[in-house]
Amino acid sequence: MEEKIIEFTFRPKTEPKKIMPTLVALIIVSAFLVVLSVTAPLYRGLISLAAVIGITISLYLFIRYSAGDYVYAVGFDGEGQAVFTVVRTVGKRASTMCCLHLTNFRYIKKMTREELRQYKADKDIKKYNFCPNFSPDTVWLIRSEDRSDKNEILVEITDEVMNRLLEYSRIAKETEPLE
C-alpha cells in the first residue's frame, strides 16, 4: 500500500477563561491609575503613562488570546510540496502566520509549561508562538531548517494530530526529489 499525504486542518481548542483574570486585573489597575493621575498633580505624566501602557497591554492580550482563532493545516504549495501552515483569523481577516515545508522539520518535542520556561534556544533561531491559549499546559516545539533559515514554532496540537504530522513529515522526506 502506497503511503500518501492527505490534506487536513486542525482547530485547537481555546480556553479564554485563562486570560480573563489577567485582563480584568490590568483593566482595574489601569482605571485606578487614571483616577490617581487626576488627583496626584506632581506625577500626573508618569501615572498617565503607566495607565496607557496598562490599557495597551490589556488590549493586545485581548486581541491575541480572546479575539483570534488559529487553524493548523497540512496541504500542498504551488510546487506540490507538502507544507504545514498556521492561519490566524481575527474577525473576518485571515492571515497566514507561517508556512513550513514538512521536509524541513528537524526537531519536534512535546514540552510542559515548566520545561518551556527553562528552555533556551540558540540566538540565531527565530522563535514564534502560535498557541491560541495564554499559558498552555503543554505545547509542541517544532524546529524547521531551510538552508540558512532556522525557525522554532510553538503550537498546541493533540498527540494524535502530531503523530499524523510526524508521519507526513517522514513520507515527505522519503518522497522528496533529489536536486
Record the SSE blueprint.
Elements: E1 8-10, H1 20-39, H2 44-67, E2 68-76, E3 82-90, E4 93-101, E5 105-112, H3 113-118, E6 126-129, E7 138-146, E8 149-155, H4 159-174
Parallel strand pairs: 6-8
Antiparallel strand pairs: 1-2, 2-3, 3-4, 5-7, 7-8
Helix pairs in contact: 1-2
Explain what this protein looks like in three dimensions:
With 179 residues, the protein is an alpha+beta fold. The protein has a domain of 52 residues. Helices cover 37% and strands 32% of the residues. It is built from four helices and eight strands. The strands form two sheets. It has a four-stranded antiparallel sheet with strand order 1-2-3-4. The chain has a four-stranded mixed sheet with strand order 5-7-8-6. Strand 7 and strand 8 form a beta hairpin. The model has no long low-confidence stretch (mean pLDDT 88).
Globally, the shape reads elongated
- Count of DSSP-assigned helices: 4
For the largest sheet, list the strands in their spatial order.
Answer: 1-2-3-4
Strand content: 25-35%
Order of helices and strands: EHHEEEEHEEEH
Average pLDDT level? 88
- Unreliable segments (pLDDT under 50, ≥5 consecutive)? none
Q: What structural category arises from helix and sheet content?
A: alpha+beta
Question: How far apart lie the N and C ends?
Answer: 27 Å
Largest sheet: 4 strands, antiparallel
The percent range for helix content is 25-40%
Number of E strands: 8
User: What integer value in Å does the Rg equal?
Assistant: 21 Å
